[in-house]
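Help! Submission page says 'invalid entity' but I think these are all valid:
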Amino acid sequence: MTFQVELVSPEGITYSGEAEMVVARTVDGGDIAFQPGHVPFIGVLAIWSVEVIRPDGGRDTFAVHRGFVQVAGTKVSILSDVSEAAAEIDVDRARAALSVDGDDPQEAEARSRAEVRLRVAGTEA
Amino acid sequence: MAGGRERVLRRRIGSIQNTKKITRAMELIAATRVVKARQLAWAARPYAEQITLVIENLAAGGAEVDHPLLREAERVERVGVIVIASDRGLAGPYNSSVIRAAERQVQNARAEGADYALIVVGKKARDYFAFRRYAIESYTTGISDKPAYDDARVLAETVADMFIGGRVDRVELVYTEFLSLGSQRVTVRRFLPLESTETIATKGRGRAEATAAFEFEPSPEGVLEALLPRYVEARLFGALLEAAASEHANRQRAMKAATDNAEELITKLSREMNRARQDAITTEIMEIVGGAEALGEDAETEELASVGAGDRSPNSRES
């Protein structure tokens, strides 16, 4: 059984497809996986990746830096104004961002974003 | 001399033809930009709709929070006016009408005994208000042509901070709504404080699955708190995109009118030039004919004179 997954950004629908399972991480709920027939759910996403497992077994991974997930009926919508597909990620820039030191929350956030980018791109820091 | 007039007209026609080429090019550019701006506005819709849908679902789930963005001030001491105009002119009445509507908002605020804070997008609006010595609180340029979401986010954050910090108690948004290619309308919308979630929900399409009990993580209030700033951004982004589409549509129309006028002027001036040329030619012919006739008359009198002489000669012979 599959359901519809959409990644919606203010610039348009950036991804749309069928999936068997979607794995995301909410702000303080930890990882959560959705399968068809999941109860209606709305959650705030943490700075983390979202994985879409396609019916053919392949997976698409996105770095989602801020957003929401809504599960209703047979559809999963991921709303995010900052999300990137694995292929779009600039690995060098993420590495550079990771090496910036600093304690203020903005810099810490930039670092965690860079970490997620590298994770999604498949190259560990 | 008549030839001088013809030369002057020819030069004017040439210059109008150049202007026409420019306005025609601008018209075509604006036409393609309208299409692109409309596509962007169209693409932004699902996101805004989805966010509204989430709010609808939250309202159906009975979530109500005391978020600073929802807080209504008891007394409005300062009104924020966001005005979205363009950086470039030659767009017909586009800038002047949106600026006039914004100025009216400022005057309304004054009439209420409140101060105002102008949040200006676009060079044209800045020029207007700066020239009239209005205080400009914030000015953004370079985004009205082709707004990106990041621009909307930065601006929305500035405005939300002003509102939450109590520096403005109400914010009005003045922009041009894109109804269709042929019709755009200046609109004034309440931007902040936001309507209560119920109002947003009833304004939505009513697609909320009222029967479905949603699970919220971390909590309905937590979701709403994270969602409202995004909702504000999405609304501002939507307004910026509509304004951009309206700007290009207005420019296209203005430039089409300019091209048509240039064409009309060229026809009129060409006629005038042709008449001047014909007049000059007619005058020349008249001069030639006149000259020839004058010469012919001379020859005739000479002939007559010689005939007279001939008549006289037999007499002389007689004498």
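Support: the input was valid. A stray whitespace character was the problem, and the output above is from the cleaned input. The beta strands of chain B are 78-84, 115-121, 136-140, 170-180, 183-192, 215-217.
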